[in-house]
Amino acid sequence: xxxxxxxxxxxxxxxxxxxxxxxxxxxxxxxxxxxxxxxxxxxxxxxxxxxxxxxxxxxxxxxxxxxxxxxxxxxxxxxxxxxxxxxxxxxxxxxxxxxxxxxxxxxxxxxxxxxxxxxxxxxxxxxxxxxxxxxxxxxxxxxxxxxxxxxxxxxxxxxxxxxxxxxxxxxxxx
Length: 174
Hints:
Blueprint: E1 2-3, H1 6-23, E2 31-32, H2 34-39, H3 42-46, H4 59-65, H5 77-86, E3 96-97, E4 100-101, H6 127-135, H7 147-158
Parallel strand pairs: 1-2
Antiparallel strand pairs: 3-4
């Protein structure tokens, strides 16, 4: 199960074709909407599917529910290290929890600005520009999960107070 977008579907189809050519085993991928991808319970999907594409905010949920098996297995550390080196930024470790790898990145989502040329002459070029636009009522934020959480993480990192990656306080208040 993956989501109905080329970023989520195309890599899985391509990888499955390679797997079929090497092993003779055919993998068929079902698709669901992006909204379902973000909100539908993974535990329920795990009852129906052998392979599931998840988003990194689900890692805590799947480990608590114990509905998926970790992907790291003894003797395959080299492949994991290679995948980590080939991944963008923190994409690979974003699926790691309690020293286990629960998923592999197939893309990297990031918070970016979008603007309408009919409403703004040009996009904001600095944080001060964003604040000025916000004060004028020209900034909107995605508030549906997990986008609101990712926006918070992005804003915290931009004020040099990145969220914790280990147990303890999520953010330094100072």
